[in-house]
Every structure is written in C-alpha cells, then in structure tokens.
Amino acid sequence: MSEDDERATDLSGGGIVSSNRTRCCGGSVASDCPSQFPDQVLENVLENVLLFLTSRRERNTVSLVCKSWYRLEKQTRSELFIGNCYAVSPRRAIERFQKILSLVLKGKPRFADFNLVPLNWGAHFTPWVTAMAEAYPWLEKVYLKRMSVTDEDLALLAQSFPGFKELVLVCCDGFGTSGLALVASKCRQLRVLDLIDDDVMDDEVDWISCFPETGTCLESLIFDCVECPVNFDALEQLVARSSSLRKLRLNRHVSIGQLHRLMVQAPQLTHLGTGSFSSAGDPAQGDQELDLISDFAASKSLICLSGFRDILLDYLPAIHPVCANLTSLNFSYASINAEQLKPVICHCHKLQTFWVLDSVCDEGLQAVAATCKDLRELRVFPMNPSEDSDSPVSEVGLLAISEGCRQLRSILYFCQQMTNAAVVAMSKNCPDLVVFRLCIMGRHLPDHLTGQPMDEGFGAIVMNCNKLTRLAVSGLLTDKAFSYIGKYGKLVRTLSVAFAGDGDMGLRYVLEGCPKLQKLEIRDSPFGDSALFSGLHHYYKMRFLWMSSCQLSRSGCKEIAQRMPRLVVEVIRDRVEEEMDDAVEKLYMYPSLEGPRDDAPKFVTIL
Amino acid sequence: MEGTVTFESDLNLKATELRLGLPGTNESEKQTPPSVRSNKRALPDMNEESRSKNYSSVTEAAGHGDRETAPPSKAQVVGWPPIRSYRKNSFQPKKTEADADAEATGIYVKVSMDGAPFLRKVDLKVYKGYPELLKALENMFKFSIGEYSERDGYTRSEFVPTYEDKDGDWMLLGDVPWDMFISSCKKLRIMKGSEARGLGCGV
Fold first, then answer.
1. Is there a contact between B60 and A500 if contact means CB atoms under 8 Å apart?
2. Is A38 part of a structural domain of the chain?
3. What residue numbers bound the domain in which A62 lies?
4. What is annotated about its quaternary structure and interactions (chain B) (predicted)?
5. CB contact under 8 A, A498 and B82
6. How far apart are the C-alpha atoms of B11 and B2, rounded to whole Å?
7. What is the pTM of this model?
8. B40–A202 C-beta distance less than 8 A
9. For B28-42, what is each residue's pLDDT tens digit?
C-alpha cells in the first residue's frame, strides 16, 4: 500500500469548503429553471467523470471546489481511506459518505510493531464494523492495518455483508482461527483472504475446511503468518476447487511434499509462498526433487515467490525454471549464503522486488547488483537482530547495489557498520529513491572508517534524492543531519528517528523545514518541550507524532494540548509510578475531529 | 581500572569479581533470544505484565564517543533493532502441537461459555488464584460474575463458572483450593445460572 494519507480535516462535515466559491454551480439535481440547465449538464458530466476518479487526493481536491462538487464527490466516492482510526468517528464518516464499497483503516502507530505500545492501547475495529454493518450493507472490501480485531468483529462482518469480497489484515491481532472459520464459511463471494504479519490465535478450529464446498471464488489466499497447522487434505481440496486462485501463500506447517501436491493442483498461480520448503513430516521419497522442478516448470505464470521458512537447500535448484520470470522474490526467512544465492539470482533478470537475509553477505548483494538491473525495492534483514553481532553486510554491499541497481526506489537495509561515502554514493547513483531506510543496529555508531557522524551521508540522500518521501535514520547523528533534512527534505512525509540528535534544534529543523511531514516517529532522542512547540503550525496537517524516551514534560505537553484544541495528546505510561512524574515517557498525538477518545485504557492519559 | 580495592566499610566485591570482559566495561546484557512464544490464546493481562517488566529504555547522551573507549552498557533495549516480533520469532524452529505443549510450562485448558460461539484457551499457571482467573474470564467473555461465597456460590450473576475435573465431574469454580484446582481441571465452562443449579459446594 502506498503511504499516501489524508488530512483529518478533509472528512469534516464541509467545514473547510470555502463558502466564497459556491457560485459556480446551482443547487439541487432536478431543476426546472432553464437558466440552471447548463448547471445540470455540468453536474451530470461531473458525476460521470468522478466515477473514474479513484485517487483520494484528487477527490479531496474536487470536494474543495464548491458545495456542489463536494456533494457530488461524496455521493460517488466508493473507497474510504482512514489513515488514523481516531481522527474521525465511524458516525461522521458514514454521514458524509453513503456508498462506500471499500474501507481502508489504519490504527496503532508503527512503533507498536516493536513492542513500544502497551497491549490494549486501542485501535478497535468493533465500533467501525458495528456502524458499517448497518450503513454499508453492500460493503465489499476491508483492509485493516494495525487494528485490534476480535472474532466477534469477524463474525459480524461475515454475516452483515452478503457481497463481501476482500479481507486484508496486516499486523492485526485479537482474533483467532474461530474468526477465520466464520469468514470462510459465511462470505460466499470471498475472493481475497490475506493475512499478513498478523498474530492469529490458535483456537484449534479447522478454518480451511469452512470454505464453500462447491467451488469458491477465491483468487488470493495468504496465510503464511498463521502459526498453527492447517488441515492439509482440506487445503488440497480447497485449492482443487478454486479455479480462480492466483495467489497462495502457505504457512510453515506445509511441507515440501505437500507443496508439490498443491502445485500440481494449481499451475496457474502467479504468487506462491512455499511454506516450509523442507521435508519435515513428509514420508521419505527418492524422486522428490525431480517432481518439484516439474512443478515449477509448469508454473508459467509465477512472478512472485516467497516462503522458504525452513529451507532445505537441496531443493533450492527446483525454482530455477521460474527465476527468469520473477518480478518479486522474498528470501527473508531463508538463511542462505552467497554461494547458495548466486545460482538462483543470476537468472532473475526481471526482478524488481527482493527481500533477503544478511546471511547472503556483501558478496551475495554484489551478485544481485550484477544481475537485477531493474531492481526497484530491496530489503536486507538481519539474521541476528541484535546490536553486537557481526553483520555480514556493510557499506560494501550497499555500494554494490547502488552501482548495479540504478532504478532503485526503495531500500531497507540493516547492518552493523556503514560509511558516509557509501550512502553518498547511493544518493548519486540512485536519484529516484523514494524510500530510504538505513538501520545501523549499533546505537550511536559513527562512520566506521572515518569516525565521523553519519550526517553527511543522510544529508546527501535528502539533497540528491528529490523524490524522497520516506526516511529512516540511524547511527551517530548530530543536529546537522536534521538541518539537512529540514533544508532539503521538502517532500518527506514519513520520518523515523532513533537515538539521534544533540538537542532541541534537531527536531526544530525538521518541524520548521519539512512542509509535507505527515508521520513523525522518534525514540530515545534528546528533544524537549521547546522543540515540540516549534511544530504548532504544522501539527494539524499531520497524521501523528510519536515521541518516546525523549525529554518531554507533562506540563509542556499539557500546554500543547491547550493551545491546539483539535489535537489529541496522549501520554502513555508503562509503569504506575510514572503518574507521579512530570516527565513524559511516551507521547502520541494526532489531529482529530472527535476530541479525546472514549476507549482509552487506564495507562493512557489524554491531556 | 574501575573498582579499586578498598578495605573500608564494605567489601568491594566488584573489584575481585571474576568476569569476562575488558576492565572498565560493565557486564553487557545481551538481548536474550526471543523466548518461544506459544500462540495458544493467552489473556492480555499476562502479556501486559511481562512486557512492562521487560521495559528498560536506555536514553544516552549523544556522545561523540569513538569505539576505542568502553562501549556504553548494553542494557536490554525494548524494540531495538526495529524488527517485528513475528520476524524475530520466526527463527525459532517451528513447534508442533506436542512440542508446544511440552515446552510451555503452562496449563492450558479450554474455556467455553454457553451462548458464545467461540472456544477459548487459558493458561491456568498465569493466575495466582481464583479472583484473578475470574476477572480474566469476565474480560474474555464480557460478562460479570460477581462474587463467590462458600455458602451460596455465585448468586449475583446469571453466569456460573464451572469446570470438569479429572474424574469427569462438573464442579463449581472455587470449591477446592486453588492448587488442587489447577492440577485437576480439564476444562472450564461458564454455564447459564439455571443449568448450574445442583452444583453447589461440597458436590
């Protein structure tokens, strides 16, 4: 999903529509007055045009033109995107948009992924599904990210929307296989069930058996994150009777022998997650490998491959037949080294997305750079995600990638050591970068060759990569790095900062300099109240600001809350004794039309 | 070298402590490998506790230290490096059902409630006694149980928590001492009051 987002105020009840501009169009649709005939035509034309307008940014612009356009736009909008579930209430959204077919809803701040947000903080799907069950009976698609979803929510969803087609849950929790069973059995039109990085509870329910018995509409079934075993025979039968299936991502409980059986049933797949890719649980068979190569050879449409959760390296060559067609390859759960990667990657000329573990080393990345000339997105994850391990990838790998993959748009790179020179090189070799996320895992580490802070490297990125919208910084950074970001990062919308900066000025540079900033997440950096005050002019335009383990005080945050009535300022406590303290350990603030939420748990104080 | 030996009021044990590591370094607590996470349904309360205990964020002054001097003490830092738990945990060997049960020291029992379509599981080991367990059940199924009295059982609620013991008998929750309960409980069932009549203390 793109990181585009929407200002909360856009969903207000017309509050920002300028009343000076209402002259251009007439009033109601049915009008007998001849002088309004041209307006009627205009409205009809507009309505038809709007049907084709899907980008929410463009729609927001349309809705600002005048009241009439606002009204037409809201009648024709079919996808509702809510970047922060607390920015607007279900009731208000439903009042404005009556014909929603598709909902995108995002909840917790991203740092929740790293255990920085206590459990039960919020982002409950319940009020939304409850309201929509009545208001949007024709709802077809729901996409949730970082929401708390219960089985009851899924039950309500399954029974309320007869035409329901797509459910995508990303980084969600609170539900289990019971809920999945209900969705599978009751959503007879279901085309897409995608579970991505969710925490799914094992209720010991055989949900795979719950899909309709007489053929399904399934096009996509993604459940690689589900940690409990599934009924394989039921799965095999499901795949056999799902002729539209194109995307199938299995969990690690599916063995390679079982994979073979499934691939035989579904040679039409475009996206495959292989499951464990090991033979644990399989009966011993001599010619297993041969069969698998044939399976891959028969998969003429396969363009996206992932899985390999417990990879048995002997079987890796089986994927060779599809390599030349692959546009996306995810090896980020496979601990393979450079020598094992090379025979595979050398065929992957069309690869655009590549996720991998640092076990492939700089040498493996060099092989990628040599072949994957069209690479757009690279993610290198650490096998050993700790601060003091030896990372097999370094500035050498980064440099190689920058030299070989000039089309790079997006990079996420974990390493233990880095140099400014390599980062500067990347900024020049890959000027089309939109996302640059570098995580030097040791905190406060400088350039390991020069001993200098990493300011110049990140400075070059913001200077040379003019399309940059997302940036994550790390390593030893002074306020200078932030001055660069403020000066050059004019398109930056998302910024992640950890263990960086010297003092308030760092944050001030960013808040004063980056007009497009939407999402700012900061941890363990020495920014205090006065830095926070420097952003007052901008907070209403943001989706959220997160600051934890900085130097904020309760009185400072309280003053912000008082000065900005439409900003919800949450102070989140981990320990009871923090209540006595003036120091704020965790701050989460966001503009909202609704004021303080009524579902805040007791460890959250809304100032 | 830190910790000069003094023979004053206290024994300066630190000076004589045998440790691995350079003099002047504090003992580093490496981030412990992620513990095996059983994904059996456990209640939020338990996780909340264990997470807040785990919390220690280290705020360090941004020193321009070079690596020659002793590195700052590596206390366990929550959420760093920023890798999703799902990914961190996935490098544990996958657990079969049997493995998970054997390794987890919890006592998992199924919980059902009359009228609710979903089964749950709880780990009895997590709770110190009946009040905690009851509160957790109330949260889980969103109902209220009221108080238990030895004489009257659960009078203030239409729901009655019961369990099946090793002998297959259905007992009222709270009748036996806690330790006896957790060693004999096979499953829990929250009954509607009318059905529970006949289960009383001393059954």
1. no
2. yes
3. 7-77
4. Homodimers and heterodimers.
5. yes
6. 15
7. 0.78
8. yes
9. 333 333 333 444 454
